[in-house]
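User: What would this chain look like folded?
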Amino acid sequence: MTPQLVDEMLEGRLKMLWNMSEDLAHIHPNQNKVHKALANLELCIVSDLFPNETTAFADIIFGVKSAYEKEGVYVNAERRLHFSQPIIGSELPDDWEVINEVAKRMGTDFGFETQEDVWNETRKKAPNRFGGASYEKLKANRRDGLQWPVQETGTVRLHEKEFRTKDGLGHFNYFQYELRGQVQELIHDIRSEFYLSTGRVIDHYNNARQTSECSKLDKRHEEDIILVSAEDAEGFDPESRYILKSEYGESKPLKIKITKNMKKGCLFTTFHHSKSHINFLFGDEADSFVMTARFKSVKVKLEPAEG
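Assistant: Here's the prediction, encoded as structure tokens.
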């Protein structure tokens, strides 16, 4: 998992990183720690479309094709395999072509000539999931895609006969609901700080590195803004800038907007613009199964920016 890789980099056990199309130095939590880890690497290689926060740490940068310029198979969180074809041409290499060429120069020839060769190797390595998902079959189902596991056909319902448990059965446990943590503090107004949740706006995607290249989209959302509940508006000046502070770090000075759409005690902001330092506010707290960070709830103070 990425947080574990960051720990390995920080401790010096992982000395080289090849980062492909993920702005690690912007979108991940605990950015103070991430930046120290990247700076501790002996070699950092980045494959990406545009300069970003992570390319600033790179020793080697490869410019590569975007999703709209290349052929390939995408697998989404719904287990759906989508066969994509380019809608515009590009002279840049695909990611696999860069890896293939570097491998050859280091003495290893994978034997890949096309992207289909790479996919067929994936089918061999993961036959239970992708064995039957040939290019021919994926092209024939281009509109709706196929859901893995794919053999003769795709699988619409994954757990139709059994669950992924030791005995194959689903187990239900009842827990009586009780007020606790954030909800208890907000309902009884016993909090001493705000609770911050982060998210996106429709104009941008994730770190906005691609969408910000579109001037119309960038003008619609040029900076991250803190939304403050109208019930908490007293003492806040919408014409001033404020800093978010948590036990892990702090943001840069940001504008605020008073709104009736926020509940008392809650704040919201986006994390699209790296200059805001929003993800410096989060620590290592995460889900124990997939290590997704606690982006939806962190205690913060909202203080006026000096000057």
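Residues 95-105 form the longest helix (11 residues). If you want, I can go into more detail on any region.
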